Amino acid sequence: MRVGIIGYGTIGTDVAGFIQRGEAGEASLAAVLVRKGPTCESSLAGRSGKPLFTASFNEFMEQVPDLVVECAGHAAVAAYGERVLRTADFMVVSAGALADEDLYGRLLITARENGHRLVVPSAAIAGLDRIAAASVGHMDEVSLITRKPPKAWIGTFVEDKLNLEGLTEPVCVFEGPARESAKLFPESVNVSAALSLAGIGFDRTTVKVFVDPGITSNRHQVVARGKFGELQLEVGNTPSAANPKTGYIVAMSVIHNLQKLSGPFMIGL
Ligand SMILES: NC(=O)C1=CN([C@@H]2O[C@H](COP(=O)(O)OP(=O)(O)OC[C@H]3O[C@@H](n4cnc5c(N)ncnc54)[C@H](O)[C@@H]3O)[C@@H](O)[C@H]2O)C=CC1
Ligand SMILES: O=C([O-])CC(=O)C(=O)O
Fold it and tell me: Which residues are involved in binding NAD(+) (predicted)?
C-alpha cells in the first residue's frame, strides 16, 4: 500500500519515520506534501527509498498513493479532501474539520462515487470501537471532558483570555456541543469530533474543555450510556516534545491503522 502524507509537522514527521522504519505493516511511503517545498527532509530514506517531498499537490498525487494521511490541520482537509478521494483513500487526523456538515457530506459522496474510503483514526482518544458498536442501538448520552496543561494552549485563543502562567486552579474554557468545540479548538479538541462521528453525532455529544495547571499529560474522559450498558474511560496522553497540544499516541494510532489497512489481520475496530 503506497501512502502519501500531507503535512510534515509533529504528527507527519513521526508517521513518516515509523513507515520508513518498516513499522507500518505493508505500507510504504510514496510522497509527502509540504507547504514550502522540497526541503532537506528529502534526505529521509528508509524502507521506501526516498519519498518525494513536494509543495505541489499534483506532483504529490502523481506518486499514485493508495491512501493519503492528512496531518496538516482543518484547512488541508477542506482544500484537498475531495481531490484525494477521487483517486485514493483519505485518512483524516484533523477530524474536527468534519464538523462542517457540508464538507463532510461532499467527502462522503466523493468517496462513495469513486470507491474510496474516508478513514478517521482513534488518534488521541480511546474506546471508539465500543462507542461505534453501542450506537447501533439507542444511546442516552456521550460526553467528553478534555483537560490539558497550560502550555498546550499557547498559540490558541485561550492565551488571550487567561494568564496561562499564573493559573493555580483548573479553568473551564468551553462547555457545549461537540460541533462547537471541534470548530473552536481546531488544533486541540479533534477528539470531540472523532467521538461524535463514532457515536451520536456532533450535536448530541457534549463537551467540556479545561486548562489544568495540575496535570502534565493531555487527558480525555469519556462517559457513554445506552442500551449497550455504560462506558467510562480516561486517557492521559504524553504530549509531544515538538507540539504539547499533540500526544505521541496520534502518530502511533495512524500507524496501527496503516497496519490494519495494509495487512492480513485487523484488531481494535
Ligand atoms: N484527531 C486527534 O486526536 C488529533 C488531531 N490533531 C490534528 O492534527 C493536526 C496536525 O497536528 P501536528 O502535527 O501536531 O501540528 P504541527 O503544527 O506540528 O504540524 C502541522 C504541519 O502541517 C503543515 N501544513 C499545514 N497546512 C499544510 C498544507 N496545506 N499543505 C502541506 N502542509 C501543510 C504545517 O506547515 C506543519 O508542518 C492538528 O492541527 C490537529 O488538527 C492533532 C492532535 C490530535
Ligand atoms: O493530542 C491530544 O490529546 C488531542 C488533540 O490535540 C486533539 O484532539 O486535537
Answer: 124, 190
